[in-house]
TrEMBL record:
Residues 39-101 form the SH3 domain. Belongs to the MIA/OTOR family. Plays a role in the transport of cargos that are too large to fit into COPII-coated vesicles and require specific mechanisms to be incorporated into membrane-bound carriers and exported from the endoplasmic reticulum. Plays a role in the secretion of lipoproteins, pre-chylomicrons and pre-VLDLs, by participating in their export from the endoplasmic reticulum. Thereby, may play a role in cholesterol and triglyceride homeostasis. Required for collagen VII (COL7A1) secretion by loading COL7A1 into transport carriers and recruiting PREB/SEC12 at the endoplasmic reticulum exit sites. This is Melanoma inhibitory activity protein 2. The lineage of its organism: Eukaryota, Metazoa, Chordata, Craniata, Vertebrata. It is found in: Endoplasmic reticulum membrane.
Length: 127
């Protein structure tokens, strides 16, 4: 009985730490094409396959096109956000090459807590 209880506690701790990681703020700041981050900044093409670590990330295959809407800045400049079809999420900037730039001047804005939540079928998933 004690062994089963220890296993359940261990599973609970693992589950809780995974939840914290998937809602972790990745950066306090981001750069966008407009203050609301609604305009596409650029169109990029994947140079490698990418499978993100959790549901906040955009998965793609080499050659797929992605529309970029924001770029994390200051403490984490390697991650950009974009969409591919109806999928949206973070991806490393070194996994893509810029094909076309739509916005010449970027605006730096504070991130929001909702920037780091998982999106599933037009609703937020709170971990």
């Amino acid at each position: 009985m004690s062994r089963i209880l220890h296993q359940r506690i261990l599973l609970l701790v693992i589950s809780f730490s995974a939840s914290l990681q998937s809602t972790k703020v990745l950066s306090e700041w981001k750069k966008c094409g407009d203050p609301e981050c609604e305009k596409a900044m650029s169109r990029v093409q994947a140079t490698t396959d990418y499978l993100g670590p959790d549901c906040r990330y955009l998965n793609f295959k080499t050659g797929e096109e992605i529309m970029v809407y924001s770029k994390l800045s200051r403490e984490n400049e390697n991650l950009w956000t974009g969409s591919k079809g109806k999928d949206f999420g973070y991806f490393p900037r070194d996994a893509v090459k810029v094909e076309e730039v739509f916005i010449g001047e970027e605006v730096e804005v504070l991130t929001k807590e909702t920037d780091f939540l998982c999106l599933h079928e037009d609703k937020y998933v709170f971990e």
